[in-house]
Amino acid sequence: MSMPETKYNAENVPVVYIRYKGVWDMEDLYQQMVDWFRQRKYHFYEKIYKHKHPSPFGIERQYVWAAHRHEDDYLSFHISIYFHTYDAHDVEVLMKDGSTRAFTKGRIWMEFTGKMEYDDEKRWEERAFYYSLRNVYNKYVIKKKKEQLWWDQLWYREIHQLYNLVQQRLKMESEGFEHRYWTGVHR
Fold it and tell me: What are 65-71's contacts with CB under 8 Å, separation 24+?
């Protein structure tokens, strides 16, 4: 018998947005983001890819990505990314070495969301006693660890690093990752 999910089974972190208008290398952005997930050992899924019929202004595409990673037997991190390109069309750009490359010109909207999920394998839901014990464990025993350690790891080490990578690939004005040495130099 499966118990209903309570508020102690998962916690969300705030949503981070990017809105950009200009020229970017879509192939490079796409590949760098996927490589970031692979290097950090996430299970990565592209849930939705929509290519809408071109309008006179350009092409519209939607991507929905989901990734998750098990931190330990009890905790897993989930990151979802939604991005949407508007009025996009390919342009040929002359590079410094004289070659030409295809870039994308248009607008892009990205949303980065994260969630910490506890007991995602539902081991503590086999019996009503385990279910109650899990709620007590989440609410009292690991409360500080959830709020001070795991939440910060997901927010600063995962989502903000990916957010900074996208800013760098888009060559946005904010190119420094402000939380780079937040937990020490050796990470």
Answer: 65/33, 67/37, 67/42, 67/43, 68/42, 68/43, 68/117, 69/40, 69/41, 69/42, 69/43, 70/120, 71/150, 71/153
